[in-house]
Records
---
Amino acid sequence: MASRGTVKASGNFNANEDAETLYKAMKGLGTDEDAILQLLTSRSNTQRQQIKAAYKTLHGKDLVSDLKGELGGKFETLIVGLMTAPLAYDVTSLRNAIKGAGTDEKVLVEILASRTAQQVKDIVAAYREGNTLEDIAGDTSGHFKRLLVILLQASRQQGVQQGNIESDAQALFKAGEQKFGTDEQQFITILGNRSAEHLRKVFDAYMKLSGYEIEESIQRETSGSLRDLLLAVVKCARSVPAYFAETLYYSMKGAGTDDQTLIRVMVTRSEVDMLDIRSEFRKISPKSLHAMIMGDTGGDYRKALLLLCGGDDA
């Protein structure tokens, strides 16, 4: 499958030369932020890891520590994100989400609903060093925790079970709209265990049966974190790029910007499906992703984000 990312590996790549460019950009008085951001947004993550290794060999210093020493604020967070290997980035995001008092459920929801089965398995394996699987579910509880644990198993059925489409749709209808109260367990079992292509067919059957989109029913029948997670699972089953377009849109819509979310999505999707996210973004927003970043951010932070965005969709 061709990458739908905006960031590609650089053709005539030389890790040592890049390491030198970065060293010069940070040497002496003042920092050449522009040189840093232009270089790092035009290399793939794999290449950035090679630059990190070359930098250590040539200068005996850690590139990320040096970058942290020279940069600050949101721009620093973004650059450090770009310098982190994807798996380590997800694991760190999850660790930070469940560290300390309370859990940042938004991060758990986003990562566990949108990553591929293999990515979730890798996350769990990396996380397991010193932790159990259940630790990722943090101090969550109830149905929300149950669905998280199911998603952490990363063992969705493959393909479409033709014979179960109708019965799954009916089970969801009976568990929600047709019942006084809600049987959350049914929603969790079906949405947590069926493949994306199977679920898309179930959603169509559900619409015919009930007259509602499954999202409308989830909105009405559930609440809180469970609702957020179920909706994210449904949206990712329909289209992962559309899910991220919406996530980006709400990170910037209205007063203030949710920079943590903006950074996390731009870093993690720039080599995966940013082109598709941009076209989905255009369907839900009067402005392009490029224009929205332009209006919502500033300075080197904005410059780097726009390079990750990779172009405007007027």
---
Amino acid sequence: DKSDDGEEVEWWSSRQLTVQMMQNPQILAALQERLDGLNGSPSGYMESLPKVVKRRVNALKNLQVKCAHIEAKFYEEVHELERKYAALYQPLFDKRSDIVKAAYEPTDEECEWKADEEEELTDEMKEKAKLEEEKKDEEKEDPKGIPEFWLTVFKNVDLLSDMLQEHDEPILKHLQDIKVKFSDPGQPMSFTLEFHFEANDFFTNTVLTKTYKMRSEPDENDPFSFDGPEIMCCTGCTIDWTKGKNVTLKTIKKKQKHKGRGTVRTVTKTVPNDSFFNFFAPPEGKNDGDEDSEAVLAADFEIGHFIRERIVPRAVLYFTGEAIEDDDDDTEAVVLCVQEGEEEADEENDPDYDPKVRSPLPAHIHPPSKDLWCPEKDLTQLFSTLLAQDALSSSYWRPWVAAVIS
């Protein structure tokens, strides 16, 4: 059939054009720049408004800037409240630390806790369980405090366990407490994480610190981007390692061949090593243009904020795993709400919506994976995947790209 032949030629030409485009870095760079510009760009609606209406919209924007400055003051007062209530929490956290490191033995009354599974147990079953528990305790050595409390917390939290290396664990067994200290009244907004260690063979410090300095004021050049305090920089501390115990460095041996004589010699070199303790030697601040440094700093900020907001206040629940279950439940609920909201929006806004037809794509084109839809993904990778699925040779590729950049 001639029409089929024509469609096949058109399909092949489109495919060849796509391959050529992917192989041309200038075209890819220009297209990437164009797509980046489309992300979040205003529609043509504003340009179509009468001048007098645009003038009033500018007045609304000025009001919005004033709102941003009020919001900044709000967060400054929130910081003061956090500092005030931190003083009220601290005696409880100090007692927690004393129990963990065996400086205080809680009373029977303080140790009473009615677990959910115990609610339906009969008195006879409870007595039997108690006897078995006592028998197990007699067979074991009496541990002091709560061994490896903070190490267990770290290992239970994905964000922190990803930082841990096997050689870090023996050191973190000596971690006795983590404290949060807020800046004094009238001082620039900041907070410090203090990691308290018992005496150990790895370093002589008793406290390792990490300080985060923040700013709570809108950017003059982009006031609408203000969304609460922004961490501007962080400073770590010097760890006084015992000789041969520095886990942030490793020694490697490398063979070198002499160019003239042809002899081979072995050279010993010290290089950085992956370790949780690199957390105390972060980039000092934002370095414009250095994407790697900014990425490391952003990840560091996320970790510091998480330790301050979640780990320190709820440490026992991360030790038992209960807080992790709550976090998972919250995440699932958010995902479900987003999915339901998107489905409802599709149904309400699409006049041609048919509940029997769930996908606008041809049957042979599979929906993109979660990774593909991530806007941080490289454009070349996106086109490679779409090309492999014949998506670029059809009229369906535009919504896909739009979805990736939206």
---
Amino acid sequence: MNIGRPVPRASSGAHDGTAPELLYATFNQDYGCFAIGTQTGFRIFNSDPYKEKMRREFKDGGIGIVAMRYRSNYLAFVGGGRNPRFPPNKVMLWDDASAKIVAELEFRSDVLNVQLQRDRIVVVLRNKCIICSLEVKPRHLHAFETADNDRGAMAISGASESSILAFPGRQKGHIQIVDLNSCIGAPPAQDAAAPAAAPAATPPPAAQRARSRSRGSFSADASAPQAVNVHPANINIIAAHATSVSALAVSADGAMVASASEKGTLIRIFSTMNGRLLHELRRGVDRADIHSIAFSTDGTRLCVSSDKGTVHIFNLEAREAVGQQPPAASGGPGAAAGNRHSNLKFMKDLLPKYFSSEWSFAHFRVANEVRCICGFGSERNSVIVLCADGTAQKYSFDSYQGHCVREWYRKFI
């Protein structure tokens, strides 16, 4: 499951604690690994236990976006930094087994976000979300219009059997939900990319590379090639917020989508099947920039990081079964056991909505209070944080009292 957004950086890192060589950081689909893009290349790490797995240094430029495909040898790059290795409007598919670019996709505007699935590439532009096949010669499968999405908000479920995609709608504050498995069939066997389950997938056959010269390519300016297994998309629209959507996350099984608006005070969780509001979680009272939202792999917890330098952890275990209607007497989203509530909640019908909010049962402030993204660790009660100062940190938390303890702190750049 993906985080979907980079470690955020200010325009200048000289006075905000940002590591100047760090351009991007993201987890893979299950938080077991993370990747960083730097001014001179990229690196891959095991999250917990922490260990650098590999690095590539380039002589001719930096990597501004990197996307992992589970634990396979395929990654997607977009150039960035002082001297970008690739143009900002191109996505380059890298095969680390052969240490070379095997395919590229070119678009009319800068790429803001990229995610890989086993057989698909999802690319976010400022006003569009595009799905292409993941193969030597990528095929255009679908394109969806969005409202202005300068943050590149997008999320896709991480489980191999699920493929629920969430991205901003055409109207401000709306979310579009698409089940890619229902509108895109599997690519032909002879063209499909190698299975991602293998630690080092077999690179595309040399004959295929020869037919496409040194690499395959796709241009968004060209008419879409004939894609035989593509069907019309069935889109579910959710009116989530009054202001623009700034961050999204989809649970691993695709049953839930979490969203935050540019205001950053509330996190709302909806059923992806019927759009019903399941939870309304309050991060705080003051406006904040939400940098990441992440579900635990079993969908029972949620962690949120913001520009306040804090990470909040919410419990979702007591939710009603997704897709079922709540009891008639409940009148709203289910309350999760363990989350904090106002002492005046019993008067929620008479007081402002603030008093009926669910608050995190645990939260902590990261070292140096720098901007960060978060994901869950291999142990149930743990969170891994990647910070803009070039550090990875692990925190454990108590399920009952909510006490948080930093377990380790590592410099990865």
